[in-house]
Amino acid sequence: KPAEAAAPAAPAAPAVDVAKHMHEHLARVTTMQEAVIRGDMEAAVEPARWIADHQETAGLPAGTEQIVADMKKSAAVVAEAKDFKNAATATAMVISYCGTCHAAAKVSPAVAEPARPAAEGPLAAHMVEHQFATDLLYQGLVMPSEERWQKGLAAMAGTPLAEKDLPKDAKLTKEIVALEKHVHELAAKAKSATDIGTKVALYGEYIGGCAGCHELHGKVWGPGLPKTQ
Asked: Is the dihedral angle over the CA atoms 47, 45, 131, 99 positive or is it negative?
């Protein structure tokens, strides 16, 4: 009996299609992270599920298949997470896999550095500086770029907000102060991080701290009501 001919290999996706898919993928990762940072778990589900279900390997450079598979697993964890701490940790993993894949493929995505936002008042100015720092740290992992990572850490080098600077709520303000201090401490600790595992762990805890603070006072910063109402 003659041997059956092997099925022809599927043609690689055109480079332009891969680039388009990667831009869409990055947009979903960004949306997912922003939702987690706000403490809005519901808004994180759709982009996380899209990454888990629709990220393809066709047309990607050889050797990146396992990285993409691991990324999809972490995105599924975000989609199914019941609390922001687990979601934040898994989100940091997804972001790191983007950077690992780019490095393995020897690709340097052109990601514009975020503009430093302006805001009126010390509280608003401090919060947008947090946002600026977080965007830079995100780019540092996703590109990856040590320069962006260090710029993000430098932007977090200021003094944490004090109780007098925050919304007056006897049940929440002290917790917010503690979380604010903690994210500054994490940023300081991250300055000495050289390996990706340590960076990811610190970044996951960092954005989890952001989410925890926003969740505490949802009327001001997060997606809904404070937990006391």
From this structure: negative
